[in-house]
Amino acid sequence: MAKQVNYFDGEQKRAYADQLDKLERELEAYLRTGNEPTEEFLRALDAEAAAIEPEPEPEEQVEADSTRSEIGNEDEEKEVRRG
User: Fold this and answer.
1) Where do the segments described as Disordered lie (predicted)?
2) Looking at the structure, do residues 12 and 47 belong to the same domain, yes or no?
3) pTM for the structure as a whole
């Protein structure tokens, strides 16, 4: 599954990476305790992951914003061609 994450970009890649990270933490917890993780434990893991997750670099944010504006411009061009 880790290799699959590299085929995506942007938000989709981030979502899959987050999902993979969560599943890995659940597996580690299961292997450590031998019990299936409870909802309370999963909430604690989510809180822990949120505390660990670094803020995006300013360059990444600018890059994401420019990509969004490029997509918006393409959509506008398509509408102009149709109209």
Assistant:
1) 52-83
2) yes
3) 0.42
**Does one domain contain both 4 and 43?**
yes
CA distance 70 to 64: 10
| Beta carbons of 10 and 30 less than 8 angstroms apart | no
Residues 6+ apart with CB under 8 A from 22: 45, 46, 49
27, containing H or E segment: helix 10-33
The span from the CA of 11 to the CA of 64, in Å, is 9
Q: Which two tokens mark 3?
A: 């290799």
pLDDT tens digits, one per residue of 23-45: 888 888 888 888 887 888 878 87
65 and 30 housed in the same domain: no
Split into its structural domains, the chain has a count of 2
CA distances to 40, 45, 83 from 8, rounded to whole Å, are: 31, 25, 33
